[in-house]
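Suppose a classmate hands you a notebook page containing two proteins, each written out with its sequence and a corresponding row of structure tokens. How would you begin to make sense of it? This section walks through that situation. The first entry is reproduced here exactly as it would appear on such a page.
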Amino acid sequence: MVKRLTRTAGGFAVCGDIGNTGVVKSTGAPVVGAIGVPSQAGGPTDGRTREAVARLLMEQGPVTAAQVAAALELSSPAVRRHLDALIADGEAEVRQASRRGPRGRGRPARQYLLTDSGRARFGHGYDDLAVAALRYLAQHGGPDAIAGFAQSRVEELLGDGVAQIEAAHGADARTEALATVLTARGYAAQARDAGLGVQLCQHHCPVAHVAAEFPALCEAETHAFAELLGTHVQRLATIARGDSACTTHVPLDLPVRRGATTTTTSGFRPEATIPRGRQPE
């Protein structure tokens, strides 16, 4: 069942923020060296030292802890503490160094390198590339090409989750199922009671920066929601427009007319959202 919240004056529940994400603060001895001067673990200097360790892994990895210590002029315990913290956060990984020549005594050297998550802390150009590609598509294919791409993307996004959603009975149960599917896709979604309806709150949008320039991505998503839920829906807010969450209102216990339309904040009004042959539940 959808969790019930206090109804607001406007009849809609307020989508709250996600709770504590469980950020782990590292503890240990103060960092001493040319880069890390003595400070409490987890402080500003400690953070700068960890950034330096991560950058070295990115630029020279895979490298051993001894190589990191030598390059940054840090003590071995300090380096290992930062490497352990990066591994715990999923930003670095360790592997055994390949041996050349006869095998000697002792354990094989352990080498460290950044994961994709670790490289993300230094930024990337995926959003810029996506925007450039869509601009090119719009220039050479026009609005229809953008709309077609947006529809194809949302179909791929939902994928096999469509069967899970359609198996649920009632708009409220389907909204919860949709929220579960979206959360699995990285959208941190929740379904919340809002009086005569349900609000679908997406607290994260991986394509928000792209959607800010190409709202067709949001429009195709909202249209798909209406088709899956079997009722008209209204997009109240989007992260792409600067709101704290993407919020979609789903009315319950209301008769759905064939040919009902979806209303979004951009004024987009697609064709009938109830596919022919499908009856509202």
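The notebook's second entry, a different protein, reads as follows.
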Amino acid sequence: MSENKENKRKLTNEVGAPVADNEHSVTAGARGPVVFNDVWLMEKIGHFNREVIPERRMHAKGWGAYGTLTITGDISKYTKAKVLQPGAVTETFTRFSTVAGERGAADCERDIRGVATKFYTEEGNWDLVGNNTPTFFIRDVHDFSDLNRAVKRDPRTGRRSAQNNWDFWTLLPETFHQRTIVMSDRGIPASFRHMHFFGEHTFSLYNANNERVWTKFHFKTQQGIKNLTNEEAVAINGQDREFHGKDLFEAIEKGNFPKWTMYVQIMTEEQANNHEENPFDITKIWRHKDFPLIEVGVLELNRNPENYYAEVEQSAFTPAHVVPGIGFSPDKFLQGRLFAYGDAQRYRLGVNFNHIPVNRAKVEVNEYHRDGAMRTDGNYGRTTAYTPNSEGYWSAQPEVAEPPLPLNGVMWRFDPKDDPTDDNFRAGGNLWRLLAEDKKQLLIDNTATDIAPVTENVKYRHAVHCQKADPEYGKRMTKALDLDYDKVLELAKLDNNALIQATIEA
């Protein structure tokens, strides 16, 4: 290959300087939080957030409803958050969405479903941003914009590309568990009312004594799980592309209010330090037998918006919005989302997006933010606009700070695949073995249909991943994709880098 051609394949930043690593965030220690001097990460996210306006870059097609969270359990020993105390009732707004499609996309597509809930608590707004799956495709925020470009429209054809999608997925083995879920019967929910949803990330809870535990949030539907086959979804999309929105709206209008039971899983800091794998890796799950679900309360949706644009389209969420007693974790993907979501909303809706009624807190807000487009609240008048000041406005509240988090290790771009505890196929294999025979066959059939247009080298990668997860899974997937099983077995002996080299097209 000529030097000129070789140079054209070398990645640079936005002003032509070489980029050393485009997949791993700079963190404080191998499992530590992302550091702010990862300037290439900030550039990637900042540019990505501004690529589309006014439509959301992802989760563009969505529906929403108001409701309440009622706390029926007692987890006060874990958290001092008033919203989670026994008997508390908090107003909420929840938005459901597909991920890859634009605002005009059909509801019943094979995709994960985004679920974001805003809790209007007496201590300020808490936003829980998650999906209808307990895991996710990627674990490092550096892959965030790349994942979304892979599932969006191809720049040359203007069409969605299975080739791009599967090529990206199979080059990152950590996507395997989520691939298995999306291609299973749960890949197309029958309605928003008939699916679970999850906070996905590991968050923290801390109590009045400033004692911290790690947690995952779960919401299990009380309506029961119902899903659509490919054939059912095709028929519905041909008749009503807004089927899920219609179902949610009409159920609430008729007084058939959907409900979800809220649970948490709890892991102590000591348990996290000794866990078999990285507990902050969003592509992994915490097994229920090890960390059982603890019932917290009931989320009910009981009021439809009056105006779709004002209340659903202009609703804005960011996981950076937490309240005292709820905090973050060193999850590398969560760390990036803490910046990305709020920044995207500042671009999409304006710097004062939190003044829009659906986003506005129910409590008094005292901040030093000033000016900006569409400032409509008086801009705090003559109140002092800086801190510290001699007039007593507004002092910080150190008593609500999270406990300090010890950090270990050097600052570096760590690759989780170098962690000897990292196993990207255990969870997907466990899921396969849990499925009944009819669900296994549906998973195989759905995958074969979805991956059919994709080149053979990418199909081999996926079959190898299935083989690594479970030999039966691998053998049946190989047969469904009309591949050579002996070749799959040989490729399965390779590590990830060697597998990629063996399956890269010239």
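A careful reader of the second entry would note: The chain has 16 helices and twelve strands.
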